[in-house]
Amino acid sequence: MSAIPYSDDVLPDSVTLLALPDVAELMGLAVTRVHALLREHQLIAVRRNGVIGIPKEFFDSTGEIAKHVSPLITVMRDSRYTNEEILEWIYTEDDSLPGRPIDALHGDLAREVIRRAAADPF
After folding, report:
1. For residue 3, is it within any domain?
2. Which of 46, 55, 51, 52 is nearest to 8 (CA)?
3. Tens digit of pLDDT for each residue in 2-17?
4. At what angle do helices 69-78 and 83-90 cross, to 10 degrees?
5. Which residues make Cβ contacts (< 8 Å) with residue 64, sequence separation at least 6?
6. Is residue 12 part of a domain?
7. Distance from CA of residue 102 to its chain's centroid?
8. Which structural domain, as residue segments, surrounds residue 39?
9. Residue 37 CB partners (closer than 8 Å, separation 6+)
10. Residue 21 lies in a domain
11. What span, in angstroms and rounded, lies between the C-alpha atoms of 36 and 40?
12. How confident is the model over 17-36, as pLDDT tens digits?
């Protein structure tokens, strides 16, 4: 399987995407390993303006995949949500968090986000 998996770009234009070679550099990996992370559903990429990229918020300040991003993707995929639905959910404002689930994944509410995703995010 050599195709690089990516989803439709359902993200707001304000979401910064990192091109796959930039992700590889950020993580200190070969770009083929980034492709493998996409095939393993550890990350989700989208195609925007002909470039495949991964949301910058999927990474922490050290260049690693943020601790709760991959588990959230797994929980939602196990519940049969598409990658597009996952992206829409984590980038949609939720006043009860407050803010977007992707932002909460980087803070004290990360476990609450995963709990909600497991319960029924939509």
Report:
1. no
2. 46
3. 589 999 999 999 999 9
4. 130
5. 27
6. no
7. 8
8. 17-119
9. 43, 65
10. yes
11. 6
12. 999 999 999 999 999 999 99
Q: What sign has the CA pseudo-torsion 6, 78, 31, 54?
A: positive
101 DSSP 8-state letter: H
Two tokens, residue 19: 């091109």
- The answer to whether residue 7 is domain-embedded is no
Q: Across the chain, which distance is largest between two alpha carbons, in Å?
A: 41
Q: What string of DSSP letters covers the chain?
A: --PPP-B---S-TTS-EEEHHHHHHHHT--HHHHHHHHHTTSS--EEETTEEEEEGGGB-TTSSBPTTHHHHHHHHHHTT--HHHHHHHHTS--TTSSS-HHHHTTSTTHHHHHHHHHH---
pLDDT of 95 reads: 87
Count of the separate structural domains present in the chain: 1
Termini Cα distance of the chain: 32
Residue 94 structure tokens? 């939720």
